[in-house]
Design brief:
Helix content: 25-40%
CATH superfamily of the largest domain: P-loop containing nucleotide triphosphate hydrolases
Shape: globular
Oligomer: single chain
Strand order of the largest sheet: 5-6-7-3-8-9
CATH architecture of the largest domain: 3-Layer(aba) Sandwich
CATH class of the largest domain: Alpha Beta
Order of helices and strands: EEEHEEHHHEHEHEEHH
Largest sheet: 6 strands, mixed
Number of helices: 8
Number of strands: 9
CATH topology of the largest domain: Rossmann fold
Number of domains: 2
Radius of gyration: 18 Å
Length: 252
């Protein structure tokens, strides 16, 4: 059996001035190569858990045990694209490599490849104000991919987009996932999005934030409308919705 990329053990996090802990006793394994969706009501600690995994927050107790003894290269996609408005797409995607010490010339093939992977290979010189919301998020994903991370963390990246664009970017993410060995952890509020993207869904409840249940989904190669119209997809959505309802009942 393949060892987990990371084992989260009894993670707890409390923010100053808050009554209940944001997270308490979270236990979860990240399986190499999987897409794991974190699903739960607002305030259940999904984003906080993602930030702990990314090293952006430190737990009050518990630990994250990495398979190789140290965290791998991590890409993070936030809820907002957070692009530099004065810089073109090349410069925005180049930023992590520039901070790592690569020259523009050295980084150019990787930047161009990352933008091509998200369908923006012809927009290198475009400024963020010239892009749609979906294009900005594609650029944000390209920036997270340019380091070729082993772990890609996404914090509700498509929540503010219209449904058509959201479906398109779901397929972009799945295509990227098929061509990469990266492990993906994706935070969402959407039952349908989690059923479409995930190999496993970890359902959380709030006050305090904990993992309530973990559902494994069986996935073939079918995607797009073929999957969305299938009886299996409907059954998965029903299972996830029932699990979410139980978790919300416990949180009430």
């Amino acid at each position: 059996m393949t060892a987990p990329l990371a084992s989260l053990r009894d993670l707890s996090l409390r923010f100053p001035g808050q009554g209940a802990a944001a997270l308490d006793g979270v236990r979860l394994d990240l399986v190499p190569g999987e897409t794991l969706c974190l699903l739960g009501p607002s305030g259940c600690g999904k984003s906080s858990l993602l930030r702990l995994v990314a090293g952006l927050e430190r737990p009050d107790s518990g630990e994250i045990r990495w398979r190789d003894g140290a965290a791998p290269t991590i890409g993070f996609v936030f809820q907002e694209p957070t692009l530099m408005p004065w810089a073109d797409l090349f410069a925005n995607v180049y930023l992590p490599l520039r901070l790592a010490g690569l020259s523009r010339r050295e980084a150019a093939p990787r930047v161009e490849a990352a933008l091509a992977r998200v369908g923006l290979g012809d927009r290198l010189k475009a400024l963020p104000r010239q892009l749609s919301g979906g294009m900005k998020m594609r650029a944000s994903i390209a920036r997270a991919l340019v380091d070729e991370p082993s772990l890609l963390l996404l914090d509700e990246p498509f929540a503010a987009l219209d449904e058509i664009t959201r479906w398109q970017l779901n397929d972009v993410l799945l295509d990227l996932r098929r061509k990469s060995a990266a492990t993906v952890v994706f935070v969402t509020h959407s039952v349908y999005e989690s059923a479409y993207l995930a190999d496993r869904v970890a359902i959380m409840h709030a006050r305090p934030g904990r993992i309530d249940s973990i559902l494994t989904l069986e996935r073939g190669e079918t995607r797009g409308l073929g999957l969305r119209r299938s009886p299996g997809f409907a059954a998965d959505c029903a299972r996830i919705a029932e699990g979410l309802q139980r978790a919300m009942g416990q949180a009430a």
